[in-house]
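Action item from last meeting closed. Structure (424 res):
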């Protein structure tokens, strides 16, 4: 038996993981500085300008660093210097405040954004082993992996899962190879046969990239010896973020079939993830693994995932169709009684303090639980407002459970219960 697990950003909040709001604040405070073709220093708060424009356009909607990345990719796609311009450039033009942007400014903003996210993730990643909740998290993963092998699909960029498993896992990356043309520097090359040959082991698959990923830098004459066997966009895995980060610099964009440009970064964010995932190893293979896992495994554990990726949701909702009453699904998230996430039309109580599911969460939850909106929201709203109570609800057919007090509380209060249920 194997267990499919999907981890979102909420899975790391209890161990010091940075939130999207905090990341976005750091991004918009960064000033872009670069030298133009005449070696003159230029500066502008481009990331902040994009944020303000988005905030004005979307009004009360939440804007985060992924929206900013999406705009940067659109700006780059439509820039007059881009080799293959998007067809949108024939019918649209920049707003006044974004006209005349130099290509170097856009690339500078992209580099700043990527560095801020990478450095922020690395900061809590290296301190995870010293966190006071490290043992709780590690013990949970070790305990559950003793009951069944895990197919762990993490959407996070950190290496906390690797630290918990201490090498007792596979990710498709082989032995260290000196492929970079840099003396004393080596990385692991992705080899999908490893995932096929060692099926009994737990897998840790970074579907949205990792801070320890980087491309193979071609340096003549010591060029990558696998250059004629793979795509130049393939990702390698380094031992540390510091080593990988040395190869994060430089322009490397993917030209989509529509002619748009998306950045091929070691950590994937923005709103064009499917274009990136399907174009780059190991992400394209990892997505295949996710599909295979959902088809083969009747148990599914979702932790801290807000259902913001439609291409993933489209497979999660198939659990009932594929496994029926044999499905065992556990959803672990955190619901704040002081925050409302959904539109007025979906509020089921007059008190705004009640926590309401977002539209995408409800769509996934309702298909997993086979229940209507009110049957899901009312129990959560009632229990969140009335805490402390038991922080869970169970579907009518007893096949799905939602724990809504956060990951750490769930493993402390219900760890054994969750593991036994998923293995039933």
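Sequence:
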């Amino acid at each position: 038996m194997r267990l499919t697990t999907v981890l979102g950003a909420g899975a790391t909040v209890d161990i010091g993981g940075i939130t999207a709001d905090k990341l976005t604040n750091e991004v918009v405070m960064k000033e872009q500085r670069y030298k133009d073709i005449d070696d003159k220093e230029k500066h502008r708060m481009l990331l902040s300008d994009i944020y303000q424009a988005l905030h004005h356009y979307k009004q009360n909607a939440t804007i985060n660093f992924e929206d900013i990345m999406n705009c940067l990719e659109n700006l780059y796609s439509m820039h007059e210097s881009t080799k293959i311009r998007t067809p949108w450039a024939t019918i649209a033009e920049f707003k006044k405040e974004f006209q005349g942007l130099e290509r170097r400014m856009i690339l500078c903003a992209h580099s700043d954004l990527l560095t801020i996210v990478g450095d922020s993730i690395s900061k809590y990643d290296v301190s995870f082993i010293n966190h006071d909740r490290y043992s709780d998290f590690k013990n949970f993963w070790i305990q559950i992996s003793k009951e069944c092998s895990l197919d762990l699909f993490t959407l996070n960029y950190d290496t906390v899962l690797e630290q918990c498993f201490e090498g007792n896992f596979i990710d498709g990356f082989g032995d260290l190879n000196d492929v970079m043309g840099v003396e004393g520097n080596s990385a692991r090359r992705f080899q999908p046969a490893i995932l096929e040959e060692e099926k009994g082991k737990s897998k840790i698959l970074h579907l949205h990239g990792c801070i320890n990923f980087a491309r193979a830098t071609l340096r003549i004459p010591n060029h990558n010896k696998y250059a004629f066997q793979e795509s130049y966009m393939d990702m390698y895995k380094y031992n540390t973020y510091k080593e990988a980060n040395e190869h994060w610099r430089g322009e490397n964009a993917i030209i989509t079939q529509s002619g748009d440009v998306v950045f091929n970064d070691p950590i994937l964010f923005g709103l064009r993830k499917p274009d990136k995932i399907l174009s780059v190893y190991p992400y394209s293979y990892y997505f295949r693994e996710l599909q295979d896992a959902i088809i083969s495994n009747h148990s599914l554990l979702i932790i801290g995932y807000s259902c913001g990726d439609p291409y993933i949701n489209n497979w999660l909702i198939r659990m009932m169709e594929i496994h029926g009453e044999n499905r065992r699904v556990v959803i672990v998230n955190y619901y704040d009684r002081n925050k409302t996430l959904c539109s007025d039309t979906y509020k089921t109580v007059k008190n705004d303090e009640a926590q309401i599911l977002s539209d995408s969460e409800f769509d996934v939850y309702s298909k997993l639980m086979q229940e209507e909106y009110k049957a899901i929201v009312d129990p959560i709203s009632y229990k969140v407002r009335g805490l402390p109570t038991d922080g869970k609800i169970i579907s009518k057919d007893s096949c799905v459970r939602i724990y809504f007090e956060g990951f750490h509380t769930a493993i402390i209060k219900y760890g054994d219960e969750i593991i036994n249920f998923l293995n039933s």
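Note appended to the action item: The radius of gyration is 22 Å.
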